[in-house]
Amino acid sequence: MKKRLLAKKTAAITLAALTCVSALTACGGGGSTSTTAAPADNTETTAAPADGGETTAAEAKEDAPAPSGDAVTIKFQYWADNTDYSALMQDIIAKFNAENGKGITVVGEEAPWDGGAYSENLFNAKMGGGDVDCATWKLTSTPLFVNNDLLADLTPMIDAWADKDDIDENMYDVMRQASGTDEIYVMPWNVQVLYVYYRPSIFEEAGVEVPTTYDEFLTAIEKCTMDKDGDGKTDVYGFGMRGAKGGQEPWGSFVYGRGGSFEDMTTAESVQGMQDFMDIYTKGFVPPTAAGDGFNEIIANFKSGLTAMTIHHTGSSADMEATFGDDVSAFPFPAGKGQWTSMGDTETVIFESCQNKEAAFEWVSYLATGEGQKMWCEGTGNVPVSKTVQEGDFFQNNRFMKASIDGQPYAGILPILDTTTEWISTTWPETVAQALGGSLTAEAAMQTLQDALYE
Predict the structure, then answer these.
(1) CA-to-CA distance for 374 and 371, rounded, in angstroms?
(2) CATH superfamily of this structure's domain 195-332+419-453
């Protein structure tokens, strides 16, 4: 189905609303993912003049990147979640400036995230002619900026980049999806990928192995639902379902597990995924409060031992280890006829107004696959997009990182439409609550969700 991108507009309120969608994947309470995803970066060729004529020598000189060795200054805007991350970014910038050997000096300017106002303020600044060359990014901002010709098309630079294949092709596909075009305007940087937490001791007691298929996952949910003391009451539920806002992300894995998709939620496969979600509720395999459970509830239920499995990401892993020690682990959401998991994102972009795009690309690619990638992801605990960095002991020896990395090739995002914010905030939780409560069939619920997202 054809996606409706945000129309060209300058109203910052629209961007602010969509930025809330990325905020859902940015924090534990509001959604499912911490603050990172992989940006896709590339250099852009100089656009043809609006009148269709040839570029003059003066214009070419003005737009051309500086020759190697010439002094170039790149102005980079970023946000940092805390003072440690801020200091880390300045360390990465200092290292790049000292070692790039191409005369490139990055000047980093920190701006507050401010609940998503970062993107709104950046949009207003660029529309007003602001001189930022590149910046850290959220995918939800992409359509508005692209439709107002503010972002550089990185496709030619990425295609010519020696490290292109060091990033999984799926990451580039997600970047294309965000713009609704065949071009890449966003450079992957780091991500948060949802996976399934589980308790090995409960699995052993229930006699189940770690699921490797979607059907095995459903079976494990059933078998891990146990009356341990024989009093006729459930002591452990197989799965911690999130039925409140933010639950659309783990729910999406059920839809795709049956071979459905967000593109058409009314297909038989998509409807069956919804039916599976409803069945584990009506059969008593999830806590009875699941329809209204949000982030805090699913984490509390898992940590108390009430649930054997739940879905989140590395942002909660340290707390899980502190609670359980070795009696907690993770696996990527397994494949059925399809496979999908939600990805939170932080990327970088280069602006069309940047006069030295090749130099800017040197910087954003350093963050994507160079030493900057390793420093940032090891320092923040976010998941790297570089395959080379992923292979390091720091990531391979961490079971939660490993589950995240294994899920990256099929991780994705919800469609970025002008209806998405309302759909996430209101339509999805209300519709799912009705379906779980028995007042809507799976078919009716999915039709409602489809109509609301693609109205």
Answers:
(1) 5
(2) Periplasmic binding protein-like II (3.40.190.10)
